[in-house]
Amino acid sequence: MEYTWPDFVTECNQCENCELARSRKNVVIYRGSIEAPVMFVGEGPGASEDEQGQPFVGQAGRLLSLLLDAYGFTPKDYHICNIVKCRPPENRVPTKEEARACMPLLAKQIRFAKPKIIVLLGSTAYKYFLTPQEPISKARGIWIEKSKFLIMPTFHPAFILRNNNQRILLWRDIGLVRSKMEELDLISPLHNEPEMPSGRG
């Protein structure tokens, strides 16, 4: 019997594979399109995400949306998710055990989304997804080929909110993603040069 997206959502909602299941309000699965050329992977849900059941809807999510909108992305172009689907208490970093418990679900999610490009937002996603040897500050903005994916690590929008002078680096990295998608005919070319949104998200 075929395993469908509704089956996957049910499995996520019923998951009790780690301690995070005890304190969650909602399982936070995705935002955007189920199938999309680019997948953005963050760390884990925060308070707003836990309330609403969608990833990246808080302050960091608004900054990410501003950047994606400025580069002409629409929800059909992306699938946004996290390393873990339940909020860690007090927004702490997910533990290795929590990430390991959730990775099989993320693997299934990737098979449904069928992305060509995966963008790792922040050091937690970078660390648990790739088990790298160097910090994200050195790896960001550089393409990594793994399996059949092109992977780009970059800063998490929440880091940019605390370090606004680094915003240009995240902006450039999203631009590299956009250019690569155009190069691979995954998205229509932009007609006008985008301008980086001002303010603090």
Q: Could you describe the 3D structure shown?
A:
This protein has a single domain, classed as 3-Layer(aba) Sandwich (Uracil-DNA Glycosylase, subunit E), CATH 3.40.470.10. It contains 9 helices and 6 strands; from the N terminus they run H-H-E-E-H-H-E-H-E-H-H-E-E-H-H. The protein has a 6-stranded mixed sheet, sandwiched between helices. A hairpin with a 2-residue loop joins strand 5 and strand 6. Helix 1 runs antiparallel to helix 5. The longest helix has 18 residues.
What descriptors fit this protein?
Uracil-DNA Glycosylase, subunit E; 201 residues; 9 helices; six-stranded mixed β-sheet; single chain; alpha/beta
How do the strands and helices of this protein lay out in sequence?
Elements lengths: L4 H10 L5 H4 L7 E2 L5 E5 L4 H6 L6 H12 L7 E5 L13 H18 L3 E5 L1 H8 L5 H4 L4 E3 L2 E6 L2 H6 L4 H17 L18
Helix pairs in contact: 1-5
How would you summarize this macromolecular structure in one to three sentences?
With 201 residues, this protein is α/β, with parallel strands linked by helices.
Low-confidence stretches: none
By CATH, the superfamily comes out as: Uracil-DNA glycosylase-like domain
Distance between the termini: 45 Å
Note the main sheet: 6 strands, mixed
Q: Rg to the nearest angstrom?
A: 16 Å
Structural class by helix and strand composition? alpha/beta
By DSSP (H or I, 4+ residues per run), the number of helices equals: 9
Q: Which whole number gives the mean pLDDT? A: 95
Identify the strand order in the major beta sheet. Answer: 1-3-2-4-6-5
* Secondary-structure element order, N to C: HHEEHHEHEHHEEHH
Do you know the CATH architecture?
3-Layer(aba) Sandwich
> What percentage of amino acids are in beta strands?
5-15%
What is the overall shape? globular
